[in-house]
Amino acid sequence: MTTYLPTLKQLQYLVSLKDHGHFGRAADACFVTQSTLSAGLRELESLIGVTLVERTRRVVRFTPLGLRISEKAQRVLREAEELSDMARAAGKPLCGELRMGVIPTIAPFLLPRILPDLRAEWPELKLFLREETTNAACDSLHRGHVDCVLLALPYHCGDIASVDLFEDRLYVAFPQGEQAHLPDVITPDQIDEKRLLLLEDGHCLKDHALAACNRPELRAEATMMGTSLHTLVQMVDNGLGITLLPKMAIDAGLLDNTHIDARPLASQHPSRTISLVWRKGSPCEKEFHLLAETLTNIYQKKFKPLEAASGAA
């Protein structure tokens, strides 16, 4: 008896439709026309003899079996991608395409200063960047949309391996002159919880800031309304409150042309750990260690003084 197996392309169409919930957007993500994607899914359904997706004018609804098959298809696609990764890892290091996720509280402050040196050191590396909040970046990693993620730990990102790159100290930022009576470093008990502005949910920096302060009441009292560090800085500059900023952002000039002062936070855990993470068991683990070493060396040259990280996890 002849067995007809689904193609990887058909599985890619199915997974893309599950991710986007819309035929047009799914087709755009696969770089094909909507009719091509729809025809590929019909061929897949005909091949396996079941309906995977209920189609209406307004809604794309997966059948229970369609949901199970799409989850399995995601794992099959990830395994197929790792075949390519194994071949690449056996060749020249840091050569070819690499997809890296980066969180928004790192990307605009670190990447412009390190990417030119990274390109100079590894000219054959084609680095594709994807900026997402921490939760979305971890999801993209496990779905196979990215190969590794540059983020801040501690954060629960599932079954991962990681290398710590460096420590990024947190600073208390406030309108100029407002905290003139305080010392050169600010302790958590000196923070007015009613004036504290934090990033909205989905950004790990909010959790790092609260953990660094170790004051449980801050979570309830703090105003979490900023969509980005730039937004928080604008609010502080307009006298609306105070916030916590990473040293990386300050070094990159986030407070330039503002009327904001910043002083280091003095607490038991006053920093976040910038790390490179990837799926545990990845065939490219040696490459990721090499990339992490390169990023750390570049950071040491570009950002001074450096607070060294503790090592690999």
UniProtKB/TrEMBL annotation:
GO CC terms, sorted: protein-DNA complex
Query: Does the keyword section mention ATP-binding?
Result: no
InterPro entries for this protein: LysR_HTH_N, LysR_subst-bd, WH-like_DNA-bd_sf, WH_DNA-bd_sf
Ranges for the HTH lysR-type domain?
Answer: 6-63
Q: Does the keyword Chaperone apply?
A: no
Q: Which domain of life is it from?
A: Bacteria
Keywords attached to this Swiss-Prot or TrEMBL record, sorted alphabetically, are:
DNA-binding, Transcription, Transcription regulation
What Gene3D superfamilies does the annotation carry? Answer: Periplasmic binding protein-like II (3.40.190.10), Winged helix-like DNA-binding domain superfamily/Winged helix DNA-binding domain (1.10.10.10)
> What GO molecular function terms would the record report?
DNA binding; DNA-binding transcription factor activity
Which Pfam families would you find in this protein's record? HTH_1, LysR_substrate
CDD domains this protein is in? Answer: PBP2_OxyR (cd08411)
Q: Which family does it belong to?
A: Belongs to the LysR transcriptional regulatory family.
Q: How is this protein named in the record?
A: Transcriptional regulator, LysR family
